[in-house]
């Protein structure tokens, strides 16, 4: 018997977890799908133009997608590390790897994809009905990516409106980098909260958000200190060639964030697997 | 067979087991007895792989439980004391987990639910505490695992249900099944368990079959209290005296009296049963 990975047994674990998927996540999905409907209704009923930019809708869907990613692990695998309620999960005759793969499948893939598909479907239906929504969010996202100039301007990547500089940014922030950055960012978010779900026993999501806020504050303090300690250098750089400096800065941060997101995701996935394997009850 | 060898285990600063060794032979229904807090549940958790020994080893059929390999897990089922159920019917619950167990029998589950008088159509949260316990027992038995660990299974059961519990355990556990019942309600499992394991803090005081016990200990029911008995207790109509069986007389084990005798004469009985 293969005690590490058996495809038929993995299928059983996926089926087992599927049985509680909708039971545990359906309410969150419905509420998050309903939010754009509520916004649409509110905009329709509000006097005035009420027109809503497609990019604002994409941004709302993106935010709600992040919320479902944050909520999914604790909703779907709330008790997996509970010393009493988690015994059934621990004793399920499947390997730690199979349980881990199933957890990743539902938290990282199924929950976000299902939410996104539903949200885009809702958006499309509302656009077809008419009212404040004009243009489909699903097509608009890819249109904007294809015309990165506009995407860069409208999403705030433009820094000073200087055309040659703006062109350079457009080249650095290619659609591939942006899409990869979006996907890796969501993967990192998902894996971080999946790990938090295995580490904390109560108020899992809240504690993980607290830790992330704390890390962000520490990071900001370090960055502010670093910049203030190197103020002269940054000033000199800006005076010499601001455009080139910002170009380098954006290039560096965009690539560094890709690497960090990928590394953090892998580390979080490994730690989650390790916790599943060694969890005591 | 379950082998426990020089096992040390502690929760943070609380030592639970100190170098204990113990064996559970296949095909028996063991009664795991001990005072509150001696580590009965912890021992079951160690055997199930829910905890890891700090020192020493636990093996079940040569497999290490703490590795929680599927090969091991598909042959064991642990029914904890606390009833924890899902928001579903027992039928859906068993269908959800049954496919992982090679000898799972849905027909047997239905039969057991009938014998234990549990309503099949109701969800767990619509059942009483005792009904939930019986439903989970039906689930556990229908999986037909080689090892079944029951932690305080009769807690919360009414008197007829306790009789039903004894009936289904003795009727539906095969000769190959090893059952360990942890309990402090010895009367509930009388005539069901054999052998008996008595745990003490850090130690195993007794691990013996009824035949081995009665070979060395004599349970005498009489009108008088015997002075040099290991333990004496007044019962309606007389006394029960637990004595050394020096003349190899036959008697029936009174588990409660045996337990009290062992607790009062730990070293003596431990040495006697070696």
Helicity of chain A, as a percent range: over 70%
CATH topology of the largest domain in chain B: Rossmann fold
Q: Note the quaternary state here.
A: heterodimer
The percentage helix of chain B is 25-40%
Q: Spans of chain A of 5+ residues with little confidence (pLDDT < 50)?
A: 150-166
Q: How many separate helices of chain B?
A: 9
Shape of chain A: globular
Query: What kind of sheet is the major sheet of chain B?
Result: 6 strands, mixed
Overall average residue pLDDT of chain A? 88
The largest interface is: A-B, 25 and 27 residues
The shape of chain B is globular
According to DSSP, the number of beta strands of chain A is 0
Broad structural category of chain B: alpha/beta
**Helix-and-strand structural type of chain A:** mainly alpha
User: H/E element string of chain B?
Assistant: EEEHEHEHHHEHEEEHEEEHH
Domains of chain A, number: 1
For the largest beta sheet of chain B, what order do the strands appear in spatially?
5-6-7-3-8-9
Overall number of domains of chain B: 2
SS element count, helices of chain A: 10
Mean pLDDT of chain B: 95
Radius of gyration of chain B: 20 Å
